[in-house]
Design a protein that fits this description.
Layout: E1 5-10, E2 31-32, E3 38-43, H1 48-51, E4 59-61, H2 63-70
Antiparallel strand pairs: 1-3, 1-4, 2-3
């Protein structure tokens, strides 16, 4: 079972991410929406940039919720028929 927490964040907040506090290692390794307007981070312990209010996520999700979001048309290309 995956116990990580996932946040969707607006791309304009990318500069506020401290990659040492999350599982992604750089801006190159984050998952971005197809239109590149949002990205996802994941963590076990809520990062200080969220707890101190420096960054406010668009949403917070568990594993099953984020999988459902990622399967949507904003995050995944349609499968060819």
């Amino acid at each position: 079972m995956n116990n990580l927490t996932y946040n969707i964040i607006n791309i304009s907040d990318l500069e506020n991410i401290d990659f040492s506090q999350i599982y992604e290692t750089s801006a190159d390794t984050i998952r971005k929406s197809l239109d590149k307007s949002q990205f996802i981070i994941k963590y076990n312990t809520e990062p200080s940039f969220i707890t101190d209010g420096s960054l406010v996520p668009v949403g917070t999700y568990n594993y099953d919720e984020i999988l459902e979001i990622l399967a949507g048309s904003d995050w995944s290309e349609p499968m060819p028929e």
